[in-house]
Every structure is written in C-alpha cells, then in structure tokens.
Specification:
Layout: E1 36-40, H1 50-54, E2 60-62, E3 68-70, H2 80-84, E4 90-94
Antiparallel strand pairs: 1-4, 2-3
Length: 96
C-alpha cells in the first residue's frame, strides 16, 4: 500500500473533513500541543481503573505490573484523569 503524504499546514488540508484512509488515528500524535501532563504516584494508586474509564482520548493503559499510564503521544493534558482519581494518585504538571 502506498503511504500517503499527510497535510502539514492548514492550507493543505482538504475541505469537508475527508477521511483518506480508515483507522488512521494512531498515525496522528495529537498530544504534542498539551500544556500539562499526568504523573502517577504509584504509592497512592489503588489500581481501580477510574482514570482509564474517564479518559476521553482512551490513551490510558494498564501495564503488566497493574499500574496505569497515559500514552503521552495522544494525551491532550485535559486533567480529567487527575480530577476523577479520588485517591489523588494523579497530578498534572506543566509540560516542559
């Protein structure tokens, strides 16, 4: 399959929200513009998965050691995971 060159500037984007290829969302690393990122304190995490459930981007996954982490390539830094984490295991820090 021929790899398509994706638009790099706003004026190269086709009008009408045309999808050129199905199931291509993983190709777009949309987390690059976030202002904050989540940090987990594993000593406070009770592994309830609330952060996983509430993440609107679906970028939080559970590792083999049962801890949760966000894929920062896709995390928008919205802070919903930190807000919903009732044990307070997630804090948002400035991206830098």
């Amino acid at each position: 399959m021929k790899k398509r060159k994706w638009p790099e500037a706003w004026h190269e984007v086709s009008p009408g929200c045309v999808v050129f290829a199905p199931a291509n969302a993983r190709e777009y690393h949309t987390g690059s513009w976030k202002a904050q990122r989540p940090i987990w304190d594993d000593s406070k995490c009770i592994q309830c998965g609330v952060c996983y459930i509430f993440c609107p981007e679906g970028c939080i996954t559970q590792n083999e050691d049962k801890t949760f982490r966000a894929d920062l390539d896709y995390c928008k830094g919205c802070g919903i995971c930190a807000h919903e984490c009732w044990p307070g295991a997630i804090t948002m820090i400035e991206e830098g």
